[in-house]
Amino acid sequence: MLKLFEYNWQVRRDWFDWCELVSEEELMKKRVGGLGSILPTLHHIVAVEYGWICGGIQGKAVDIPSFAEFASLRQIRDFSDRCHAEVAPFVYEWSDLLEDRIMIDITDDGEREAHTYGEVMRHVIAHEIHHIGQFSVWAREIGKKPVTANLIGRGLFPQPDHP
After folding, report:
1. N or C: which end of the chain has fewer CB within 10 A?
2. pLDDT at 163
3. Is residue 146 part of a domain?
4. Rounded to an integer, what distance in angstroms lies between the CA atom of residue 21 and that of residue 49?
5. CA 130, CA 35: separation in Å to the nearest integer?
6. What is the DSSP letter of 4?
7. Residues 37 and 29 sit within 8 Å (Cβ to Cβ)
8. 106 forms bridges with which residues in the sheet?
9. Residue 115: strand pairing partners
C-alpha cells in the first residue's frame, strides 16, 4: 500500500509540473468529468486524501479551504505540500494492526457509516488514480502529452539484477 501512495504522490508532483506549462485558461476550462476542470480536480484530490486520513482516520480537526479560496496553481501546490507533510508520517507508520480499526464517517446526508481504516486507505489510493486518468484524457484534448501513469520505471522498487 505504501508504494501506491508514493506512486500517487510522485504522479501528483508530475501533474503540478505539467500544469506549469499550461495556461490558466486551459487549467480552468470546463471539461467533461471530474470536477469539471483541472485545477479544481487537483484541489479535490488533495482535500480528499487529507480529509479521510487526517480528519477521518486520525480524528484531527482539519481545515480544508474551498477551491474558491485559491487563486493560483501555486496556492494549490502549497496546499498539497502542507497536507502531504501531515499525511505522509501516518502513511509511513502504517501497520497491519490498523487494518481493521473502525472509523465512523458522517455522510453529506448526516448518516453515520462505519469503514475500516484499510478500506479508507485503499479508497484514497483508488480515488487519486481515477482522477489521474481524467487528467490524461484532458491533456490529450488540449494537444499536450500527459504525465505517464506507468508505475514501472519510477524508482519505487529496487531493480533486480539482469541475468
Report:
1. C
2. 67
3. no
4. 25
5. 12
6. H
7. yes
8. 112
9. 103
| Nearest by Cα to 84 from 161, 136, 10 | 10
Helix (H) or strand (E) holding 113: strand 112-116
44 in a structural domain? yes
Count up the domains in the chain and report the number: 1
| CATH (domain of 83) | 1.20.120.450
Question: How far is CA 6 from each of CA 59, 67, 122, rounded to the nearest angstrom?
Answer: 23, 24, 13
CA atoms lying within 13 Å on the CB side of residue 111: 4
Model-level pTM? Answer: 0.93
Domain assignment of residue 147, yes or no: no
Residues paired with 105 in a beta bridge = 113
Is 149 a domain residue?
no
For 140-151, what is each residue's pLDDT tens digit?
999 999 999 999
Query: Domain range spanning residue 6?
Result: 2-27+35-141
Q: Is pLDDT of 152 > 90?
A: yes
How much is the average pLDDT of 18-25?
96
* Closest to 18 in 3D by CA, of 121, 139, 140, 105: 139
Nearest-5° Cα angle at 146, 148 to 160: 10
Q: Given CA atoms 66, 83, 137, 125 in this order, what sign does their dihedral have?
A: negative
